[in-house]
Design brief:
By secondary structure, the protein is mainly alpha-helical. The protein has one domain. It has helices at 3-34, 38-56, 62-95, 101-122, 133-163. Helix 4 runs antiparallel to helix 5. It is elongated, with a radius of gyration of 20 Å. The protein starts with a helix and ends with a helix.
Length: 164
Amino acid sequence: MNQGKKRNLILELCVVVVSLAALLMLLYFVMAVSFQNGTTSSDITMKMAGQIARRIFEEPTQDQIATTALMIRYGAHLGLFFVVGFVTTFAGMAVFRGYYRIIGVIGAGAVCYVLAYYTEYYKQFVEGRHFQQSDAALNWYGSVAGILCMVGSYFLNRLLVKLS
């Protein structure tokens, strides 16, 4: 094996290891946030909602603060699972090469689907939390958006490489 191929193999192995490590850290963060006590989670959200509402409205009403809290919660579900879908797809595409990348994308979709619903299902066993189908759907939509963004960026990159 010549020096260039050996160096590329080591670089590819490093990308795979770093991708999987980042994915594991992200999944740990998702689990930690999902399984925190209901009172703690609600207090954090309401504190943030109050601060944001005071920046938007001169004297926000409780209804405006509650609506802001709801938007924060929805945004957190979509945003966090967008990142999960993106990183999971990147890791899947880094592990599987060539035409087998589709296996990585399908695997990422399966992992995201299970994670989107499992985190919500398990909340019913955490004090002060409960299962909400709408939150599970938001998790899944965020994951799908991340997966599509990663796949789209891959094909855009391939197109730009061919054009240059």
